[in-house]
Amino acid sequence: MERATLIAPAKINLHLRIVGLRDDGYHELETLFHPVAEPCDLLEIEPAPDGGFELQCPGNPELETDSNLIRKAWLAFGEATGFRPGLRITLTKRIPMGGGLGGGSSDAAALLRFLNREAGDKALDEDALNALAAGLGADVPFFLQDGPAWATGIGEKLVPAAVDLSGATLVIVCPDVHVNTAWAFRTWDEKYAAANVHDSLTSARRNTKNPSPVSARDMANDFEPVVFEEFPTLGEIKEKLLSLGAEKAAMSGSGASLFGVFRDRGSAMSAVRALESMGLEIFQVDCP
After folding, report:
1. Of these residues, 41, 72, 107, 139, which one is catalytic?
2. Number of neighbouring beta carbons within 10 Å of residue 28
3. pTM given for the model
4. Residues 123-170: pLDDT tens digits?
5. Annotated catalytic residue 191
């Protein structure tokens, strides 16, 4: 096995609805995943002669544990296929943790794809690989895909989606706020599940005449009302994105990252400068 460098991209949720609570305690979702090139994690892989597994994460030693999804992916693939090469992995973590951008899931999916390519006649077919990925986490199967996708179930049932963001610029804001996903689901259940209330997360006040790259139906996230109530600064950042020229803005996943969709690149760059001056971590993604 040769050395390799794997790129693990982030994702945003252009749409996220909580449909209901399942008997197994998970929530049924309807979400529109969209991959983004930045931020991304890097996995540098080299063979480990002793046949074991070693994970190093400079700058984030707390990730060097048996509970890391990368190690779990290595173990699960070996159990499913009998192919478990010794690996030494150095993870460069650029996707903020706990921000709703799917970093851990993307890391696991990147390794699964790599292992499946290396496995030869032990490789899994697409359905089996997706099933294995879903066992690791609800978002992992998406990162085995190559483009936007609608996801239902707990996020594992995927259908490719035609989403045109061409010419748009995404400004992704990553505040230093951690939103516990279990808390977000529990609080949404308490406040909205019985009434099945859905708040629109697009801005009606903008009244822009320019065509939006994403429909109003797509730009929705059921987590926003409960998360913004608990963390008002996140709602303020969303409004800031809109005031700086974003046609649409929303939170990704259960937060705390937010994104704005800009049709004018100059406005996006001005927004980046303004938000960086507030001490916020920003990523700018130009959509081809």
Report:
1. 139
2. 15
3. 0.88
4. 999 999 999 999 999 899 999 998 999 998 877 789 998 888 889 999
5. no
